[in-house]
Amino acid sequence: MKFDLDKTKTGLIIVDMQNDFVRQGGAMRVVETIPTIEPINRLKAFARENGMPVFFTRFLTGPKRTFLWNWSPQSGELKNCRRGLKKYYPDIDKEELCADVIDELKPVLEKDFIIDKYNYSAFRNTNLHDAMLSVGLDTLIVTGTVTQICVETTVMDGYANQIQMVVASDCVSSFSEELHKATLDNIAMKFGVVMTSEEIIKALS
Questions:
Q1: Is the model's pTM score more than 0.70?
Q2: Is 94 helix (H, G, I), strand (E, B) or coil?
Q3: What are the CA-CA distances from residue 171 to residues 24, 160, 199 (Å)?
Q4: Domains by residue range for the chain, with CATH
């Protein structure tokens, strides 16, 4: 695929890197998120230095069960990622808002975009696409978790909206190495470009 990255038309999205996904004791913890924090921060620093918009998503649950939870075979209690709910996390020895972005990826700046979602995809019933168009973006670098769930559905919906999707392979994570690899292979075959964070920075420089 012929593909050129233009930093004036490219944004960075950090998907669901929240306390309940990353922290010890989190209801939806993905241990594999930990090694992705450093390369995500490198991409974020590069984006900030080059005036590229940064988007953070927050997966939220509400007091009422939605289709997503009623239909999921792994449907559980809605005591995770609830807006305003605090939880104690042993690895940092303090309480934090369970739906909040992890401290390691802060600060979230006033100019950043916060995309709250009640579905897997960052595009589904959110203003992400409109926000991208408002700042002239046609390309989105995707990082975060979980590779075969919220990352993949975001890539699929972005592609369907004619957004060029780039997945930073060392910046996404899953609780299943098999599904992680299969998802990246599938994206690379049909829906986007898969590159390391180092390759992305080099292509944008």
A1: yes
A2: strand
A3: 19, 23, 12
A4: 7-58+101-204 (3.40.50.850)
